[in-house]
Design a protein that fits this description.
about 375 residues, alpha/beta, Lyase, Ornithine Decarboxylase, Chain A, domain 1, TIM Barrel, 2 domains, 17 strands, about 20% strand, globular
Length: about 375
């Protein structure tokens, strides 16, 4: 925890201490509206992924704009959002271990909780804890539709697990989790379309076998910011889990847009100060690996394309400067992170600006919630 705040409401933008995670509220609100407009009148609902922001205030605003609830990747994240009043939370992961299962059951007393399975042992463990704690859990079968992480193969294995869930009175068969994470960052529209067409086919095949066994598949959920229009229009998916659309990091912007793309704006920035100009052609910022995740590549300098962020160490970021660049000691820049999710997890709060003023500080309450 920082010993002091980077800013206070009412401060000018120029007074924000650095490095700080800054949210442009106008761009953020336009992004919220664009997603709501894209799903308006569709038989597809929005359950945004809260792992992108880890911030209850953002989740409340998403629900107010029509989201049914949120996704979380970790049970600890889910606890933060249930405590904040989010009434419908899907943990898009497998929950394994006695202590975690008890935590899951406790949360299910206070909110509608969903969880994923890809193994009969998980179904059995969930049924035991739900029955012993007198709660009901929504359980989704995770199907590997191309991401090759968790998930059973499409078809018979998914149908078998669905039947096992349905046979336990303390469990509700919620539907299918069919998220194709790798498809989100395929650069060309054609590659993304091909990947999601295959994912939709796998989901449809699994649904057909499950329904042939007499079960209803009420929900097929998945999709992300990079492909959600494809899932929306597939005729198969009826829930969208996009998360990064509210922020838009550099990596998502590197995707080539489709002709019908919904254009989201960069709303999340790392404000950074030049702390060294000791060498010509180089400036060193106070934002390095502990201020901006580089797992998806380096950040870029917002509205200064001539400045190249070329290297990062723990507390230093190196800019390569062309000859004649005007950038002095103490100057500040706004960086667009390469990957928003792990960058957000580095900070205690979002400094929310409107125009050139700080409007609010929003706690990133689920930061570090890894259990």
């Amino acid at each position: 925890m920082n010993p002091w705040k980077a800013a206070a409401p009412g401060d000018p933008l120029s007074a924000i201490d650095t490095p700080a995670l800054v949210l442009d509220l106008d761009a953020f609100e336009r992004n919220l509206q664009r997603m709501a407009d894209a799903l308006k009148g569709q038989a597809v609902r929005l359950r945004p992924h809260a792992k992108s922001h880890k911030c209850p205030e953002i989740a409340r605003r998403q629900v107010a704009m029509g989201a049914v609830g949120v996704c979380c990747q970790k049970l600890g994240e889910a606890a933060v959002f249930v405590d904040a009043g989010i009434a419908d939370v899907l943990v898009t992961n497998q929950v394994v271990g006695a202590s975690k299962l008890l935590h899951l059951a406790e949360l299910a007393r206070r909110a509608r909780l969903g969880v994923l399975v890809d193994d009969a042992e998980q179904v059995h463990a969930l049924a035991l804890v739900a029955r012993s704690q007198s709660v009901t859990l929504d359980v989704y079968v995770e199907v590997d539709v191309g991401g090759h992480r968790c998930g059973v193969p499409p078809g018979a294995a998914a149908a078998q697990l669905a039947r096992q869930i349905a046979d336990h009175p303390a469990l509700r068969f919620g539907g299918l989790q069919c998220y194709h994470g790798a498809a989100q960052h395929k650069r060309s529209p054609a590659e993304r379309a091909q990947a999601i067409a295959a994912a939709a086919q796998a989901a449809q095949h699994s649904r057909a076998l499950i329904e042939a066994d007499g079960l209803q598949v009420a929900r097929i959920t998945g999709a992300g910011t990079g492909t959600f229009l494809l899932e929306r229009d597939s005729g198969v998916f009826n829930e969208i889990q996009a998360g990064s659309y509210i922020f838009m990091d550099r990596d998502y912007r590197d995707n080539q847009p489709a002709s019908d793309a919904v254009v989201f704006e960069h709303a999340l920035f790392v404000r950074s100060t030049v702390m060294s100009r000791a060498v010509p052609g180089r400036a060193v910022l106070d934002a390095g690996l502990k201020a901006s995740s580089v797992d998806s590549g380096m950040p870029v300098v917002w509205q200064r394309p001539e400045l190249k962020y070329v290297a990062a160490s723990d507390e230093h970021g190196v800019l390569e400067l062309p000859v004649g660049t005007s950038l002095s000691l103490g100057d500040t820049v706004m960086l667009v992170p390469g990957h928003c999710d792990p960058t957000v997890n580095l900070y205690d709060e979002l400094v929310c600006i409107r125009g050139d003023r700080v409007e609010a500080l929003w706690p990133i309450a689920a930061r570090g919630a890894l259990l």
